[in-house]
# Entry
Amino acid sequence: MAQKPSIPKGTRDFNPEQVAKRNYIFNTIKTSFERFGFQPIETPSFENSDTLMGKYGEEGDRLIFKILNSGDYLKKVDDSLYQQKDATKITSKISEKALRYDLTVPFARYVVQHRNEIELPFKRYQIQPVWRADRPQKGRFREFYQCDADVVGSKSLWQEVEFVQLYDEVFTNLGLKGTTIKINNRKILSGIAEVIGAKDKLIDFTVALDKLDKIGEEKVKEEMLGKGIPQEGIDKLQPLFGLSGSFESQIQSLKDILSTSEEGLKGIEELEFIDRAISALQLKSANLQLDVTLARGLNYYTGAIFEVSAPEGVKMGSIGGGGRYDDLTGIFGLKDVSGVGISFGLDRIYLVLEELELFPATVSNTIDVLFINFGEKEALYSLNAIKHIRSNGYNAELYPDNAKMKKQMNYANKRNIPFVVLVGEEEVNNNNYTLKNMRSGEQEKCSLDDLINLLKQ
# Structure
């Protein structure tokens, strides 16, 4: 007996209903991207290894899927290297390409490679799959889509303002009200590290601070001490641990804490600009919240940092994030090209919409009307009508086989097709159709024009 086929862990098959729901999210995001002036690009699913390796840190390098060279890929590995069994050294000999880990580094490569063809500031969006050799768990997969939007070539803070509005518009259009757009600034984190005498331990400091809501104040202090941050400096952080209240009140507290840090005060100034603009413009359904513990992407973010959390009561990690980077293209030799970008977490958004039952009831209805097949003459008559229905923008199909009526009606029910058309000898002779509403069970005779008008209603 043949073994039942399977797929790799961390990958998924999607049935028609799931694809329809995912496309609903894709289309909603894409529509907003284009409304805000972003242009689409696509990059290859795999890049040269040297494009990706070393851009995500040691942990990121480990999670990159390498592609074996074609042909006899072991030919370049001499016996002495093979005997060492050093995977890192061997990999460079047998693999020259890798699946992309994210869309950001390929985008930086794209900007540098095509810099003479693009107009700065360049606003791009990209919706494509990425791959990571990660441990699969809820909301985390080895193959998944990213939905990114970036602007490069402008240092204007109006871009950050627009990205907050973009998040708000997308989640409003998805019916996902009550999302929280958390914002922080790398300069503020650097300023705090400077004030407490831990400027050379910025990453250690922020990694510990980021755990405040998970392990509590005392454990965070213990971790900071363990990383060599002095007790005197940690004592200066005390006002930070109790920081809460409105955006404005938190900013005022930060001004007191960072009064001696020029960089920290610059970060506060940038956040105040964004907050004032958003307060004047007003968001539709999201909330903008200052979170000084937010420290994602410190390896390349230099200004604003964003993270979006689902509405309260939904247990889910972030459903979006991003930030300002001043020199991402510098990794490919093009210096001083500032950029800012955000990403939407498609798979997590999908799970949130499922949990809150926010997908429209009709999202997976791909067919508007099914014609029942009563035989060759009736089928040809039906196909002529179907041609006209399709030309009017509606989806219609003929059941392919002259099967029992019950089987054809069951097919329509299982696919949630709202209307079926019955075409028998009587309808062909009288040049009309019998339209049945599958929800109400009502039937009526009508002409082809009437049938199309009823579909419109």
Observations:
- Residues 16-35 form the longest helix (20 residues).
